Description:
This protein has helices spanning about 45-55, 95-100, 110-120, 135-150, 165-185, 195-200, 230-245, and strands at about 5-15, 20-30, 35-40, 60-65, 70, 80, 155-160, 185-190, 205-210, 215-220. By secondary structure, it is of the alpha/beta class. β7 (about 155-160), α5 (about 165-185) and β8 form a beta-alpha-beta unit.
Amino acid sequence: MANFLEIKNISKFFTIGKGQVLALENIHFEMASGELICLLGPSGCGKTTLLRIIAGLEKQASGQILLHGKVITTTGPERGMIFQEPRLFPWLTLEENVGFGIKGRYEKKRLQRIVEELLEIVGLSNFAKAWPNQLSGGMAQRAAIARALAADPLILLLDEPFAALDAQTRTKLQTDFLNLWKSTHKTCIHVTHDIDEALILGQRIIVMESSPGRIREIISVPFPYPRCPDDPDFLALKKELRDSFISTM
């Protein structure tokens, strides 16, 4: 597998009071272009911290992030971040929110066409003029995904984007996200603490453990898409992951 993205021996300390706590220890894995992996682990194991380091929003104590063999040291348009909360600007319409990050990069007609295409992709064309407070939670999260896609990043970094949604909406957005990933071929790192979600979405699952945050194991998911949570093989792997997950806490 060609190494498109390399996470090389990342460690991270946090200063608490007069001491330091090791938050991440020697995190190392590689990804191919277009791959979708899930970071799975309990709260406090450093999943979000690692994602923020990859995004360039935080600095590691040691190790490197390499994209196409070049070291990443700061934020960049080749990486798009999607947070647990949509973080839409309440004073902008939906279409203005989606186009905000690329405003000025394109002439007006081209910008409008890009926004319209993205709203079509995420199924929100009829809500272009809506305000954020007029959207449901699922709609707002789809808008956040469209906004991240506007800059046409090579990599999407998703920090538990469906965790705050009800079960039915979460299931729908998981399906929508898989369809989007298949159509855009984006490289995706999806953080979750939900075992079912990791099994439904990930080609590989990186299981992390706490204190300090480190990789316990990397599992390749052998099932084709779409995946059925009631399938006996799915349930067997879920039990294996659950046992591993519990032992990381």
